[in-house]
């Protein structure tokens, strides 16, 4: 009941935000509906699929399940829910979710377009070229992640990454206009 009330309150905040921009920038009804659909699709499918893969991986790797459970109970209590104030303390949970996203990316690719001619390693890429960045080939590259790149090992996210662009689960850089 409490959660229902909370999500209804959040929904009205979200709608308030969408409908409360300045007069000249105000969205029309169709645009508000489209934005709601985008958020529903972009927000629900992603989190539901991530949680499904994470639960499967935790079922297969009980040692990580024990660590994650211990952390959640320590930070949130036996019946409490995580909130903005304690999300930062959920370190094990975060590395488990990142490792899940590395192995089972929810988006397959992101698209980027070059603004000007660029050289990337040996590649000479002309301006206005569309590039499709395939997540699995980056996320499972043994040159970046090591020989165990196909294995579930959240500990790899506990240390700083050498290549910041090697983990693209949430995209990287601005989207093409
Ligand atoms: C595990 C959770 C999520 C993952 C892995 C994820 C991943 C992504 C990726 C890869 C993109 C494309 C970014 C790019 O091209 O650079 C994206 C776009 C977007 N995401 Fe998420 N996302 C997640 C959760 C959410 C949630 C919870 C919301 C909102 C409630 C959301 C809203 C959006 C929106 C609005 C866009 C832009 C869509 C557009 O191009 O119009 N995402 N997300």
UniProtKB/TrEMBL annotation:
A family per Pfam: p450
Keywords: Heme, Iron, Membrane, Metal-binding, Monooxygenase, Oxidoreductase, Transmembrane, Transmembrane helix
Protein name: Cytochrome P450
KW Iron (keyword) present: yes
GO molecular function: heme binding; iron ion binding; monooxygenase activity; oxidoreductase activity, acting on paired donors, with incorporation or reduction of molecular oxygen
Superkingdom assignment: Eukaryota
GO CC annotations on file: membrane
Location of the protein in the cell: Membrane
Family membership: Belongs to the cytochrome P450 family.
InterPro entries linked: Cyt_P450, Cyt_P450_E_grp-I, Cyt_P450_sf, Cytochrome_P450_Monooxygen
Co-factor requirement: heme
Membrane topology: Single-pass membrane protein
SUPFAM superfamilies for the chain: Cytochrome P450 (SSF48264)
